[in-house]
């Protein structure tokens, strides 16, 4: 896979450090465990579903901080009282990070049938939403500014 050098762009841009670090991260091989889906469930709603078979609610930690969603799974080490001939079900610890877009918030999480569902909602502030500006005809409706000249 090719690696792109973004250093010439650093000289002529300001404030795009996060973008370039995200682009650099695309080149790195991401771990494949645990598998996950990202779904769009509505106009402003999303859901991340992760396959976390064998983990309980107590084993999982979800944290949203500064535009990054981090999901960690750590199982307490069990004493092997049985002899396992083949281990096909992974029980190793994991940490997976997701970069969240602006105004995307975690609204809840649930664990059912070995699947962790994390629901996200995009809430755009009123000041950022597009608004319609009324156009008035002619300059006769324009407010007059009166002032006194001394």
TrEMBL record:
SUPFAM superfamilies: HSP20-like chaperones. Residues 27-138 form the SHSP domain. Pfam families: HSP20 (PF00011). Keywords: Stress response. Coiled coil: none annotated. Transmembrane segments: none annotated. Belongs to the small heat shock protein (HSP20) family. This is Hsp20 family protein. It comes from Stappia albiluteola.
């Amino acid at each position: 896979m090719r690696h792109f050098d973004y250093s010439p762009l650093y000289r002529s841009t300001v404030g795009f450090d996060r973008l370039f670090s995200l682009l650099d991260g695309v080149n790195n091989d991401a771990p494949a465990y645990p598998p996950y889906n990202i779904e769009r469930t509505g106009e402003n709603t999303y859901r991340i579903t992760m396959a976390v078979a064998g983990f309980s609610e107590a084993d999982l930690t979800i944290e949203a901080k500064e535009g990054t969603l981090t999901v960690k799974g750590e199982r307490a080490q069990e004493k092997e009282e049985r002899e396992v001939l083949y281990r096909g079900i992974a029980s190793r610890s994991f940490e997976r990070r997701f970069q969240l877009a602006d105004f995307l918030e975690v609204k809840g999480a649930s664990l059912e049938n070995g699947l962790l569902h994390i629901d996200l909602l995009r809430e755009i502030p009123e000041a950022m939403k597009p608004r319609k500006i009324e156009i008035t005809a002619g300059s006769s409706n324009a407010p007059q500014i009166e002032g006194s000249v001394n």
